[in-house]
Design a protein that fits this description.
By secondary structure, the chain is of the alpha+beta class. The chain has 2 domains: 124 residues; 114 residues, no CATH class. The protein is built from 7 helices and 14 strands. Strands 1, 2, 3, 4, 5, 6 and 7 form a 7-stranded antiparallel β-sheet that branches. It has a 3-stranded mixed β-sheet with strand order 8-10-11. Helix 4 crosses helix 5. The longest helix has 21 residues. The chain is elongated and about 60 Å long.
């Protein structure tokens, strides 16, 4: 359960025919050469389909963005953005548009049957308000799912947390920005717009709230010992829940 991107397109190598690995290396060099926040890190490898791919990390609360080359002159970008927020989604889409111009990528139109495109519509139409509404709907559905777990376990529930870690703080539900009580999820289920503080990156741009959210994320805070290992993860749909034993 989550919102994000599954973009497909066709690229043209500027300096002759590149191998997929060579093209992805050029993409990585361009991405890591940016000097404005957020800075990114890229790691080459193979995806589940044994295709050459590039994993990009741009935020401590975000899952890796996967760039892959499924065929000659073809590229795919897969990312989940709802664990971070609308600001991250805007950043990633704008970055991919610039990437498309730099590498002459012709992005495909969304295909509902194939499940490709931007689930929020932002990449295709630039509508920030619709993006925020879609994020709110997702959060409201997530709150409902969490509340359904309330009477099924007396252990702490982890939501959208990195695999293998948990906060060493009290609270019935732990989220990337800290513990939440049942009342918080009940309010958000009724009015998702009250849940914007769930997201580490709500506003567009590298604002003061962006840096605060980044500092509070598990990928940052675990360095100072506020996170400990976790066992017994359980997946419900595409939302990850874990239970402390």
């Amino acid at each position: 359960m989550g919102l994000g991107l599954f973009l497909t397109g066709r690229y043209r190598a500027a300096d002759g025919p590149d191998t997929p690995e060579e093209w992805l290396e050029k993409v990585a060099t361009w991405l890591e050469g940016r000097e404005e926040e957020p800075l990114v890190a890229c790691y080459p490898g193979l995806n589940a389909q044994e295709e050459p791919c590039l994993a990009m990390v741009a935020h401590p609360c975000a899952e890796e963005v996967e760039f892959s080359v499924p065929g000659k002159g073809l590229c795919q970008v897969v990312a989940k953005t709802s664990t971070v927020g609308p600001g991250y989604h805007v950043f990633l889409c704008d970055l991919l548009r610039k990437l498309g111009l730099e590498f002459a990528i012709a992005w495909d139109e969304p295909d509902e049957q194939e499940g490709t495109g931007d689930e929020t519509g932002y990449f295709h139409d630039g509508g920030v308000e619709r993006l925020r509404q879609e994020m709110g709907k997702w959060l409201g559905a997530l709150a409902k799912e969490v509340l359904e777990q309330k009477d099924q376990s007396d252990s702490t529930i982890l939501v959208a947390m990195p695999m293998g870690y948990r906060f060493a703080f009290p609270g019935p539900v732990l989220t990337p920005l800290g513990p939440r009580d049942w009342e918080w999820f009940a309010r958000v289920q009724d009015d998702p717009q009250q849940g914007s503080d769930f997201f580490a990156w709500w506003e567009e741009g590298a604002t003061a709230s962006f840096f605060l959210g980044k500092a509070l994320c598990p990928g940052t805070s675990r360095k100072n010992g506020t996170m400990t290992e976790r066992t017994g993860p359980r997946a419900v749909g595409r939302a990850t829940f874990g239970f402390r034993r």
